[in-house]
Design a protein that fits this description.
about 110 residues; single chain
C-alpha cells in the first residue's frame, strides 16, 4: 500500500494501473475435495477459479454417469458448469465437493 501511495503522489500511476493493483490484493482459491484428497488452485479472479472447478466437473462427469440411463446421463452432459455445480453433490452421492474462497494476498 505504501508503494501505491508513493506512486500516486509521484503521479506515475493511472486509474488503469490502480484497478490492476486493487484486484491483485486478493486471490481466489478453488478447492476440490474428494476421497483421494484435496486439490487447490489459486486464481486472480472468481470467474477463473469457478471455471477451474467447472472444467474438472465436465472432465470427470463420465465417471459418474456411466451407470445411469442414456437420458439421465445426456441431461448432465448438456449442463453448463454452473448447473453442474448446483447438482454436483447429487451426481457424486455427496462424495465430492467444490468451493471457491476469496483470500487476502499478503505481500
Amino acid at each position: 500500500m505504501k508503494e501505491f501511495l508513493r506512486l500516486m503522489l509521484d503521479n506515475k500511476i493511472n486509474k488503469k494501473h490502480y484497478r490492476g493493483m486493487e484486484s491483485e490484493e486478493h486471490i481466489y482459491v478453488a478447492t476440490w475435495e474428494r476421497k483421494h484428497g484435496q486439490d487447490l488452485s489459486a486464481h486472480a479472479t472468481r470467474d477463473a477459479a469457478e471455471n477451474w472447478c467447472h472444467d474438472i466437473m465436465k472432465d470427470s462427469l463420465c465417471e459418474w454417469t456411466y451407470h445411469m440411463g442414456i437420458h439421465e446421463a445426456s441431461a448432465y452432459q448438456n449442463m453448463t458448469g454452473k448447473e453442474l455445480w448446483e447438482c454436483w453433490s447429487e451426481i457424486t452421492g455427496d462424495t465430492e465437493f467444490f468451493s471457491v474462497e476469496k483470500l487476502l494476498l499478503n505481500h
